Structures are given as structure tokens and as C-alpha cells.
Amino acid sequence: MTLAALPLTRPAWRPLARVLDWRSRLARAVPWAASRRPRAEDLRVYHLPPWPDAELDAAQFTASCTDNAIEVIRLRPWQWKRYLTRPPDAGRVNLVFLEGAPDALAGRCSGQRATARVTRLIKCLEVFRTRGGRIVWLRSSGDQRGTDGTPRSDELAARLSSITDRLLDGRPAPPPARPRERVGQPLLETDDEPAEAADPRDTAALCRELTRGLHDAAYGPTDMGVEQADFRGETGTRRCRVRWGARAGAGRSRLAVITVNYRNIADTIGCIESVRTADGGPYFHYVVDNHSGDRSFRELSRRYPELTVLETSENIGFAAAVNLAVTDALEKGFEYLLLLNPDTLMPPRALADLLTAADTHPEAQVMGCTILLDSLAGPVWYAGGEIDWEQGLEARHCHSGQRAGSVPSKPFETDYVTGACLLARADAFRQVGLLPEEYFLYFEETDWCHRARQAGLRLMVFPQVRIVHCKRSSSQGVPTAYYVYYYTRGRLLMCRKYRPDRLAETIRQQVAVSNTWIRNAARLDAGLADRLRTLRDQALRDAQDGVSGRTATIGE
């Protein structure tokens, strides 16, 4: 029963509503009272209210910060001393986010009380600065007035202006805010060039602008060295943003690692760290951000100056993103190219052992390894691949689900190598060509390996080399919506391309497999099962019509 349904008059149930709302009130008053999942943010922002505009919802801004690895702690005046004067966490960047014109810092106070509050804030901020913290100041629109509607005293405004002039890195404080439109005005007063402000009606854009400004204020400019460059792919040239790594030449490494990131920066960072700490390095690493639309490009550029980071202008799919880095790596003269999924982890010896095995077997042009699921103690996810045309196209992983000890110990040939970890000699790409881009997602590496075998190249698996794959495309036996669509369509497109006589059998097999997915989904959510069935049917139609590339209506 809701409060509105209680047989009480409005004044009678108001105290009851306040009592029942104690948890949310406590969470707002005491930051640590709110239950939060442990996160790995390296930027902590102490936010001093009020919020800048009515249309910028506090919860939406906090959620935007969480998505961009910023921990926001909203401080009330009685919490200033406790939080701003304590020693900062090691490895954390601490930042204070002030809002409003200078005289708004005193809050709803006037006279001696306002002066005392400002004096207390000054002391806290000075201690905060001595401990390595940084301060940013958001200029707010609207006339700043006291609680009685009268403007603040000139003396208090002048004093606060001098305070902000001294605390904000010596930059002159702006005059008290005047009523104005937000469009086209800078939001954050930082050392960097202010970005063009967003339309105030687009609250999501305002949140993105604020979080971007907070990152810039904490870490300094992140676009230094970023330029526009043309990269060639299978279907033509694409213009991308690129931040060339500190090791932009091929002289220090025979191997170029290529990873595609899309809205999963935590996994990508884990993959990068495993490559950075691998034996035999350093290895040259490309990371192609497939237009994630978040902070990925800026964050990766800031964290890893040795990486070459590309950002596409739109989500162009896995194969097209890989091809941009492949063509550049071929021009730079690398001997080996390694395609590595962002949700994979390399044990310290894996890369060195993989290169040693490749050198030991010069007859192999395309190479893979044993991939275990979730941990080195987990079951086998891939240990060779088989392409079977007898009952329609079936591309299956060998030894999947078995223990690692069941895999043969000696290198063996395979029909295809999964794109999660595919090592190829540069000459293999020169001979076979780039990955086919019509699939957008799934089956592009299967198609490429099939062409490589047709060209006479040998594909081998080195089972003694083991890496970990943290698979994200399914949960509780139910694949994601984009997996259902693109896997179904890709399977049929490849069958149409090479064995159209087996298309009917392939459709029957895929319908049977997808029915299992749909039944599993129905146990969890009937709506999800209907969604997967609709996507399966759409993929069948699109494949028979020859639709390729990205389908805008499919979630990613």
C-alpha cells in the first residue's frame, strides 16, 4: 500500500513520510551511507552544491560521473573539514568542484555567519591544496541574491573574488554572474581551452560536458598530440582521430598487438596491462576505439602514452576497426600482427612463448593458442576450430568445455583461428588481404581463415600457450541481443558466399540452436525471449536479402 492510499489527511501523513524516507535523507547527508558498489575510479570529486541548473538533474549527473569512473561525494558545509582536510588516498586525484558565482559559496547565510562559513571553507580548501588537491569552479547563470531577495554585500563578493583568485591556480576570478543564456558559454573555468557548451535542453550532453571538464581539470589536457589522419580499410579510406604512441616506430618490436575497444574500457585496460607486463616486451600496441561515445579515447591516451590510440567517427564493426590498424602496421614493417580481444588476459610468458613457437614453426602463417574461460583453471573455450559443411555451415571450437589437460600437447593444424587471439605473419595479410567487413561482427575471422586455407597457407594451434578469455556475450546460457542477430546473420552470409547449396541446412541448424537460446531466455524473462526471437527472424531475412554491415536498429 502506498502512502497516498492511507486513510490519512495530508498534514497527518507528512511526518510518517519523513520517517519512512530516512534512508534517502541519510544517504544525501552522509556520503558513505549510500550503498555503492566497489569501483576502481582514480578521480574523486568533492562536489559543493547547489546544482547549477534545474534542468541538470543531480542523479543524472552522478550517474554520468559513475559511468566515467569518477567518484562523486557531495559535501554539505558541516562535512567540509572532515573530507577536505584528510590525507588523500594513494594513487587518487582529488578535486573540489565549486558551483556558482563567488558569493554563492556562503550558501543561504548573510552577515557574520556568511563570513564565518567562508572563512572555514577557505581554511579547508587551503589544506586541500597543500595535500595535492585541485579546484575547479563552475560559473552559474542567474542573479546571485540573498535569502531575502537582496544582493550580497559588495564587501563579501569582493572578498570571495580574491579568495577564488588565490585558490584557483592564480587565474583571475570572473565577475559575479549575470542572467544569461548557457548556450555557447564555457562551463568550467580550467587551465584548458573550454569546450563548446551543449544545448541546455540536452541534459545528457550537459552531463558529458561536465564530466569531460572534470577529467581535464584533474589530469590536464588529454588531447595533446591528437591529430586527424587517414587510414585505409577494405572498403576505402577512413578519417580517424589518432594519438600516436611514444614508440611510434617498429624498431623496438617485431610484434604489433591490435585491440578494438567498444564501451568496455575496464576490460580493455586489463588487457593492456597484461600486454604491458608480458615478458619479452615492450610490444607495440594499437587500440582502436570504435566510437564508444564515452571517455575511452581520452582516458586511454592519458593513461598510456606509449600506445597508439585511434578513434573512429562511428561504430564501423570489428573487422573494419582492425583493418585500420593492420594497414598501418604493414606500412611500418612489423613481422607479426596479433589480434587480441579486449576481454582477454595474457599471462606473463604467453606472448614470448607464442612468438618463440611461431619462430620454431616457420611453415605456419596463421597461429592460435589454447584459450581458457575466465581463469587459467577454467575450462577450454578454444583449442582449435573446425569448419564443417556436411549438414550446413558449422564453425565449432574444438575441445570446448573440456579440461586444459585434454588438449593435445603438440602443435596441430586447424581450420580457423578465433579472432580473440589470432597471430599472423605480415605476409599472410599481404597475401590473403584484409578482414572482410561485410559481417560487422562475428565470422569475419572465420571467413578470412577459410580464404587463407584456400590460398595454401597453414593454420596451426600451439596448445602449450594458454591465455584467459572473460566472455561477455552471454549470461546464464542466454546470449546478448546483438550476438543473436549478428551471429545468425554472419553464419548465413558466409554460407551464401562459399556454399549456397548448403544454405537451407544451415538455416535449419541455426533455428534449432537459437530456439535453445530463446527457451533459456523465457525462463528468465518472457519479454527477452520475444526480443531474441524477433532478432533471430530479422537476421534470417536480412541474410537471405544480402544485408551486410551495421544494422542501426540492433542494440550493441
Chain-wise SSE layout:
Blueprint: H1 10-20, H2 22-29, E1 43-48, H3 58-67, E2 70-74, H4 80-84, E3 93-99, H5 111-130, E4 134-138, H6 154-167, E5 188-189, H7 203-219, E6 226-232, E7 237-243, E8 255-261, H8 265-276, E9 284-289, H9 296-303, E10 308-311, H10 318-332, E11 336-340, E12 344-345, H11 350-360, E13 364-373, E14 380-382, E15 385-388, E16 394-397, E17 412-413, E18 421-425, H12 426-432, H13 444-454, E19 458-469, E20 474-475, E21 478-479, H14 481-498, H15 503-524, H16 526-545
Parallel strand pairs: 1-2, 1-3, 3-4, 8-9, 8-11, 9-10, 13-19
Antiparallel strand pairs: 4-5, 6-7, 7-10, 11-18, 12-19, 13-14, 13-18, 15-16, 17-19, 20-21
Helix pairs in contact: 3-7, 5-6, 14-15, 14-16, 15-16
**SS class:** alpha/beta
Percent helix, as a range, is 25-40%
Largest sheet descriptor: 12 strands, mixed
Contiguous helical run count: 16
Shape: globular
**Beta-strand percent range:** 15-25%
**What CATH architecture of the largest domain would you give?**
Alpha-Beta Complex
Average pLDDT number: 77
CATH class term of the largest domain: Alpha Beta
Rg from C-alpha positions?
A: 28 Å
The overall number of domains is 3
Quaternary status of these chains?
Answer: single chain
Query: What's the count of strands?
Result: 21
- Point out poorly predicted stretches: 1-40, 51-55, 139-161, 163-201
CATH topology of the largest domain: Spore Coat Polysaccharide Biosynthesis Protein SpsA, Chain A
N-to-C CA distance = 39 Å
